[in-house]
Amino acid sequence: MSSDLFSYVWGPMNPDIIFYLPTPPELPAHWQAAHPDAITQLVTLNGNHWRKIVTIMAKICCLEHDINANKGIDWKQIRDQLFNESHNQQTNKHINTPSRLHCQLRIVNSKVEHHDEIAFSPESWHILCGKEAQLRMGVVDQQYYTSLDEKQKIQHQQTVLLTPYLDYRQYSNALIELTRQQIALAK
Length: 187
Fold this sequence. Notes:
Layout: E1 6-10, E2 17-21, H1 38-46, H2 48-61, H3 73-80, E3 87-88, E4 93-94, E5 103-108, E6 125-129, H4 130-136, E7 146-147, E8 155-157, E9 160-163, H5 173-185
Parallel strand pairs: 2-5, 2-6, 6-9
Antiparallel strand pairs: 1-5, 3-4, 7-8, 8-9
Helix pairs in contact: 1-2, 2-3, 2-5
């Protein structure tokens, strides 16, 4: 995919899951996604809205069977290191996190117009969050997508999921679990 499609890309180069969002957060000066405090800095500056976004991402990436066991400690650890890999190349040390999928976040540029749907690589899951991100990525016709739920909130085609925006009012815990199950089926 062309680099002009995205205003920001954070996370490992070969992720298991790529989340696509339409709007970037405010960023602190000299912010680096791989920094150990990156998520804390992001939430501190942007508030509850971005805390919810990274929490939903972490819950989807968590491979533990019961993500709410031990008061959710597993997904909370994943959230705090969301854009980091299990191995820190800078310190050459293993980062001890629960079993997880590694994710990347791409902010879809609002200035790019697409006439055709983008081709998505089958090596990663692609989660297009909300109608705006879907439209920016060229998904205008969902006829080739299959619904995962009766309310048709999550649609899928191969490794592409069309989902609600990452907000608890739209993306409930039941939909998070449905997303996790769909990804687990392909593993």
